[in-house]
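quick one before i forget lol
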Amino acid sequence: MPTSELTFRTALDTDVPGLVELIESAYRGDASRAGWTTEADLLEGQRTDPEGVRAVVHSEASRLLIAERDGVLIACCQLEHRGDHAYFGMFAVRPELQGGGLGKVIIAEAERTARETWGAREMRMTVIRQRDELIAWYERRGYRRTGELTPFPYGDERFGIPQRPDLAFELLVKPLDQAGARGPRTAAAPS
């Protein structure tokens, strides 16, 4: 993995095409199989679209956090302020860079950002319940399964074309340490 510093910033309109490509490459199609976060066996079709990404970029309650190395987009995640907690979503790391520890750094920065920006006491996310390996990865980062399920939006191809009839999202939660970020800090570009 390159040794140059990782920088973070909030996404702009001009980032939307690159973000859509990144998110799609991490979850759908053959390109996603280079990494371990692929959903290609569960869902076909799109993971997101320019309108969905642009809506997050323009929402006053959300931030789309970008991670770059040497000015190249390598990862992103959505943070949405929801009262005393933040929602974490649209998490994507370039498939060829997965498995090298970037995800841990990015989720730690997302948690720090939610704490410091909004005073969030908890991070919440939903994960397809059939994604055992991914859920286990989040559990190793302090997230816990709640057993609270939300049905997959069957029939709405904006979210993909299901390849099985039993998909559902499970809510995962993690209390956020209010004393400060854990682990090493990376440089952050102004947002």
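fyi DSSP finds five helices and nine strands in the chain.
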